[in-house]
Every structure is written in C-alpha cells, then in structure tokens.
C-alpha cells in the first residue's frame, strides 16, 4: 500500500514531500539494528518519507533498510523521500559538502532528497560532535548561517541533495536567510517540535506566508530520552481531551494527535519500533476531525517543549528565547 496522491505536499522548489514521515531517532542505548528493522517495516506498510540525521548515528542501518527494500521490489529509489541533517560541528562552509558526502557514503545512496541545517546552534568544528572545554562546557562557534546556506545551495546545484531546508530555526533566523543578498533557493521547510501542547500556530502562519512547510517532530510527545527530555513532562498520549476524541471516533490517541496536525497543513513525523503501531500511525487519511474537535485540541496548547535543549540556552543563536 503506497501513499495515495493527496498524501503529498508541494514544496516551493517544485519537489513533493509525503505528508507523513517515519522518524528514526533513538536514544544512544537503543540497538542500531532496530532502526534497520523498523525502517523496513515502515516501507513495507507504505511510508515513503524517512527522516534521519547524521547525529542519530544510524545512517548505515537506515541505508541498508532502504536498499534492501529497493532490491526486493518493495520500492524504487525515486519513491523514497529521504531526509538527513547537517550536524552543528559542520556549519563552516568548507565542511558542508564533506558532511553530505559522509552521509551518502554511510547510506550507500547517490543523493539525499532533503537536507536540513539541524539547528541554528553551532559547535566548534572538529571530530568531537559535542566539543567541551576542561570544565565540561560545550564549545560554541559562530559562522554566519548565510554562509552555511550558500554552501548548501552549491550542494543542491551539484545534485548531492534535491531540496534544502532548516530545523529548529526561529522566525528571525529564517528571515536572515530569506533576506540574504543573492539568495538562490528558499528553505523548503522548517522542522520543529510540534504537538497539541506546542501547536506552533504563530510559526505555522509565518511559514505559510513565506511558502515554507512546517514539518513537526515529537508529534506524539517524546521518546523520553533523559539526555534531551524535560523531566516531569506530561505523557502526551495520556491527555484526557485526546483520549476522549479518540474514543468517540474509534481511533487511537496517536492517530488523532497526528490527524490534528495534518488538517492544519503540517507534515508529521512519527516513530515506533512496534510493527502494529508503525502500521496504525499511517492510517490517518480515512477520517476527519470536526472544527469543534480541532478547537478543543487547540485549547490544549501550553507552549511546552519536550526538547528545549536548555544545555545550550546561553548560545547566542539559541532559537527558543524568541516567541517563535
């Protein structure tokens, strides 16, 4: 079962992105083999959008899964929309292309469909992905993000990546790129945390006005990885309003949480290792939420982040001090 025609969104560069993506992030202690198995299941049940990143450390396994599903005839390469991301230690222009080439080598693919600047926060370049000083404090760097963007544009022109975008950027940081002299390609999307407790209404309105897509991650809450997650945060899928609507519609809370974002024009990324959940999370095209149900879920917004990355909040480019 492949995704149906209406399950794609047109990007501002003319390419199409499937509106549901399969996320592959997992806490460090999760065996990498799980990423391979779950991506294979995802492709078998109909996902065509796989979201990954260099820093997840599993591009080798994700690439193996994609290639195995291509060789057994489940998908063709052109059916798969693969996203990767530029890590924060590779933002200096001379490191952008080598970073992409490193991912392509791990994946054993010829191109990446969508490549994002993972975060506006930059760390000191080098082999250490989380460089720290003698006091254990992260060492920052300060490349002009517009120079990083220019290097990305060159990689798009070289055919290494098809579309380019950003992740975790605030409005000002996006406008910096949009207003830069000699801009060749606008970001196609901004991938941000988005769910009923952080509905990103202002960011969504801003992005739509610029022809940029909002891609939501942690749409079902979070994997509760202690390294990133805010402790004591509520479990999103236990939300009473969400559960009430799900019960009434004969759906799972996860399906309702995803459908809510989808109906607002947001691309949703969901992840699971359970084949049954992987399948069920894709089944959100055959029902609609009413206006009242959307309003009810809108009222759940509390501007709460599961992933606030507070360990970086003293960085000059920390994005979450701004309203959006």
UniProtKB/TrEMBL annotation:
Return the Gene3D superfamilies for the record.
NADP-dependent oxidoreductase domain
Pfam families noted in UniProt: Aldo_ket_red
What protein does this entry describe? Rho crystallin
Q: Where is this site: Lowers pKa of active site Tyr?
A: 85
Give the family, as the similarity comment puts it.
Belongs to the aldo/keto reductase family.
User: What organism does the record attribute this protein to?
Assistant: Pyxicephalus adspersus
Q: Which domain of life is it from?
A: Eukaryota
**Sorted alphabetically, which keywords does the UniProt record give?**
Acetylation, Eye lens protein
Q: Which InterPro entries match?
A: AKR, Aldo/ket_reductase_CS, NAD(P)_OxRdtase_dom_sf, NADP_OxRdtase_dom
Where does the NADP-dependent oxidoreductase domain lie? 20-300
Residues binding substrate, per UniProt: 118
Q: Which GO terms describe its molecular function?
A: oxidoreductase activity; structural constituent of eye lens
In this protein, the active site sits at 56 (proton donor)
């Amino acid at each position: 079962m492949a995704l149906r025609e209406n399950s794609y969104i047109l990007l501002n560069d003319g390419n199409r992105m499937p509106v549901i993506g399969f996320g592959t992030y997992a806490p460090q202690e999760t065996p990498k083999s799980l990423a391979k198995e779950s991506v294979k299941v995802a492709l078998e049940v109909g996902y065509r959008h796989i979201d990954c990143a260099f820093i997840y450390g599993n591009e080798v396994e994700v690439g193996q899964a994609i290639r195995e599903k291509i060789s057994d005839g489940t998908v063709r390469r052109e059916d798969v929309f693969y996203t990767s991301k530029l890590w924060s230690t590779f933002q200096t222009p001379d490191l952008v292309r080598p970073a992409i080439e490193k991912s392509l080598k791990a994946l054993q693919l010829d191109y990446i469909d969508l490549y994002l600047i993972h975060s506006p926060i930059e760390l000191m370049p080098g082999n250490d992905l989380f460089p720290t000083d003698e006091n254990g404090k992260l060492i920052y760097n300060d490349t002009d993000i517009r120079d990083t963007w220019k290097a990305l544009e060159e990689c798009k022109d070289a055919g290494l990546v098809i579309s380019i975008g950003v992740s975790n950027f605030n409005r000002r940081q996006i406008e910096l790129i949009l207003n830069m002299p000699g801009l060749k390609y606008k970001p196609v999307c901004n991938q941000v945390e988005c769910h009923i407790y952080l509905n990103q209404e202002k960011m969504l309105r801003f992005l739509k006005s610029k022809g940029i897509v909002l891609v939501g991650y942690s749409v079902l809450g979070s994997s509760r990885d202690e390294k990133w997650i805010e402790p004591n945060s509520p479990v999103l899928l236990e939300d009473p309003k969400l559960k009430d609507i799900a019960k009434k519609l004969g759906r799972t809370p996860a399906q309702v949480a995803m459908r809510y974002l989808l109906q607002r024009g947001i691309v949703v990324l969901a992840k699971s290792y359970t084949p049954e959940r992987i399948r069920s999370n894709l089944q959100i095209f055959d029902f609609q939420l009413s206006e009242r149900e959307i309003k009810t879920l809108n009222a759940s917004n509390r501007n709460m982040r599961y992933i606030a990355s507070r360990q970086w909040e003293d960085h000059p480019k920390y994005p979450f001090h701004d309203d959006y």
